[in-house]
Structures are given as structure tokens and as C-alpha cells.
TrEMBL record:
Gene3D superfamilies: NAD(P)-binding Rossmann-like Domain (3.40.50.720). InterPro entries: NAD(P)-bd_dom_sf, SDR_fam. Keywords: Oxidoreductase. It comes from the Eukaryota. SUPFAM superfamilies: NAD(P)-binding Rossmann-fold domains. It comes from Danaus plexippus plexippus. PANTHER family: PHOSPHATIDYLINOSITOL-GLYCAN BIOSYNTHESIS CLASS F PROTEIN, PHOSPHATIDYLINOSITOL-GLYCAN BIOSYNTHESIS CLASS F PROTEIN-RELATED. This is Restnol dehydrogenase. It holds the Pfam family adh_short. The keyword Oxidoreductase applies. GO terms for molecular function: oxidoreductase activity.
Length: 333
């Protein structure tokens, strides 16, 4: 027989754990879910960064809906492993792993050549992949661009432009660009587009609450979506930007230290979604038929989101022009 003291010491933490679990479950009920369950057989979806986090959960949900999914990933071996795992879970669509390094224009061009040789059309392009690297590491792409600018924006900018013909053939088709509400913290300076000033300060020990390179790239993503929507408004291609919300993924693995988990535990418990929960808004933008024609909008929690950023058409046009020039030059200018 257990003593009353032992029972008390066991019962208290167990009760607390159950209570916290119920609170977490109640909280998660406020997070919207994609209500579209349409069969996607015959539809081809291309997702960048589909081997982990939100991209993986988006791909898994699409496969369950019988879609053909191209896993465009930097690590092809990891992509093949993920595809094999999903095949054991889902008796659904077709899964195709393909190698794509968004930090290399050459890799993007080779990838698009293979896609065009194997597919007549792309129904939905989901630009999901992204990096968040500490500024003091001063990482660059193969062409020498600052890593956030190069991967999060220019890589997807170039990829999208090269795939437009396949999207037109699938019309009505969609482009879904994963951004973040952190774009509201951004400030584009075309004289310091590579955030060189901030990188130098970071190397000297300055700490930024919000990584300027990452925030700027998320604003560029949103401007890219808005510019694409305007450019292809009457082509049958709809463009949506979306923010998955505060999610537990490995995106910030190079930034987060062990003590951050302790400090942020209460915040994470209340606000942080799982990758699967974060993927719901991406799925909403990629599959919900009710969004057709509402091009150029941003969504969060499966509803339209009104950004506090003061967008400028002049800034939008200049970013497009600069991006085109950088891709053409294939080097920082």
C-alpha cells in the first residue's frame, strides 16, 4: 500500500500535467483548420523545403488528398527517406523527390529543366523553404548574395519566373508564398540591401531582437506575392501570401540556445503551434476553392490578414527591378 504522502506527491504533478494538457488543447481549438477536403487527384503540387516542418506537413496533407507532390529539397537523400516514410503512412497520391538548392542559380536552372521535361503543368507552386541564420555568421549563397536575400527571396523569385509557363498551362493555378508577420519589422534600404551594416555590428557583438536579414526577406516575399498578383491577374494564376504563425520547427535551429527554451517556455506553451497546425493556413491557400479570384491577399490562421506595414507601389516595383537585375547579373551589384 502506498502511503498518503506518496500518493499526494504523485497526484499533484499528474493533476498539473493533465490540467496543462487540457488548457493547451482548449487554446489550440482557437487555431483555424483548413476545411477543404477536395480530392486532388490529377493535380500537381510543387513544394520547396518539404522534408521538415511546415513543408513536410503540407506535403503529407496533400498526399492524403491524392495529389501528386514534388518534393523540391536541397538534401535529396533526406527527401527520399521522407517520401518512403510517407508512403508507408498514406495510400494516396504520387510522391516525387527532386534535388533543388535555392542558394544556387545553377541548381535552380537544372531543377526547372528536369521539371519541364517530366511535367506538362504545375497546378500549385508553394514557395515554403527558408533560412534564418545569425547575422554574425555572414553566410552567402553560391553567387555571393547575403543568405536571407539569396535563398528566401531571390531563389524563389528566379524559380517562380522559370515555372510561370507551367503554371499558365494549369490555369486556374496558384502560387502560395510563405512569409511571416515579421515582415512588419522590416525596413528595406536599397543602398544596404545585403544588410552589411547590421552584419558588421553583429560581428562586433550587437544583438538583434529580430534578425534584419530574415525580416527583410519576409517583406520581400510579400512584395513578390503582390507584384506577381498584379502581373498575372488575368492569366488564371492566383497568388497568395500566408503566415503559418509561431510554430515549433527547426527554422531557427542556428539561433536558439538551450536557455531560450527555459525563458520562452510559457510563451511557447500558449502561442506556439505544431508544424502540422501551422501548415493549415498553407493548405487553405493551396486548396480552398473559395479563394479563387482573390489574388494578392495575405492569410493567417486561415483568414485574410491585414498587415500594419505601409506598402509602397514604388518600393514594390523597385524591388522587382533590382531582383531581376541581380538574377541576370548572377552576382551582387
Amino acid at each position: 500500500m502506498l502511503s498518503s504522502d506518496v500518493i499526494k506527491y504523485v497526484a499533484v504533478p499528474v493533476s498539473l500535467a493533465v490540467a496543462l494538457g487540457l488548457i493547451r488543447k482548449w487554446r489550440s481549438r482557437n487555431w483555424a483548420k483548413c476545411t477543404s477536403n477536395t480530392c486532388l487527384r490529377g493535380k500537381t503540387f510543387l513544394i520547396t523545403g518539404a522534408t521538415s516542418g511546415i513543408g513536410l506537413e503540407t506535403a503529407r496533407a496533400l498526399v492524403k488528398r491524392k495529389a501528386r507532390v514534388i518534393f523540391a529539397c536541397r538534401d535529396i537523400d533526406k527527401a527520399k527517406k521522407v517520401v518512403a516514410e510517407i508512403r508507408t503512412e498514406c495510400d494516396g497520391g504520387e510522391l516525387i523527390p527532386m534535388q533543388l538548392d535555392l542558394a544556387s542559380f545553377t541548381s535552380i536552372e537544372k531543377f526547372v529543366d528536369v521539371v519541364k521535361a517530366g511535367f506538362y503543368k504545375i497546378d500549385v507552386l508553394i514557395n515554403n523553404a527558408g533560412v534564418a541564420i545569425p547575422l554574425q555568421l555572414d553566410q552567402k549563397t553560391k553567387e555571393g548574395f547575403e543568405i536571407h536575400l539569396g535563398v528566401n527571396h531571390l531563389g524563389h523569385f528566379y524559380l517562380t519566373n522559370l515555372l510561370i509557363d507551367l503554371l499558365k498551362k494549369a490555369a486556374p493555378s496558384r502560387i502560395v508564398i510563405v512569409t511571416s508577420t515579421l515582415h512588419e519589422k522590416a525596413k528595406l534600404d536599397f543602398d544596404n540591401l545585403y544588410v552589411e551594416d547590421q552584419i558588421e555590428k553583429a560581428k562586433l557583438g550587437k544583438r538583434y531582437r529580430h534578425n534584419p536579414g530574415y525580416c527583410n526577406s519576409k517583406l520581400m516575399n510579400l512584395y513578390h506575392a503582390r507584384a506577381l498578383a498584379a502581373k498575372y491577374r488575368n492569366s488564371g494564376i492566383d497568388v497568395y501570401a500566408c503566415c503559418p504563425g509561431f510554430c515549433y520547427t527547426n527554422l531557427f535551429r542556428d539561433v536558439v540556445q538551450w536557455y531560450h527554451y527555459v525563458i520562452l517556455a510559457p510563451v511557447a506553451f500558449w502561442y506556439m503551434k505544431t508544424a502540422k497546425q501551422g501548415a493549415e493556413t498553407v493548405l487553405h491557400c493551396a486548396t480552398d476553392y473559395r479563394l479563387e479570384g482573390h489574388t494578392g491577399k495575405m492569410y493567417r490562421n486561415c483568414t485574410e490578414y491585414r498587415s500594419t506595414y505601409r506598402f509602397s507601389k514604388g518600393e514594390e516595383n523597385k524591388l522587382w527591378e533590382v531582383s531581376e537585375a541581380l538574377v541576370k547579373a548572377r552576382r551582387p551589384i
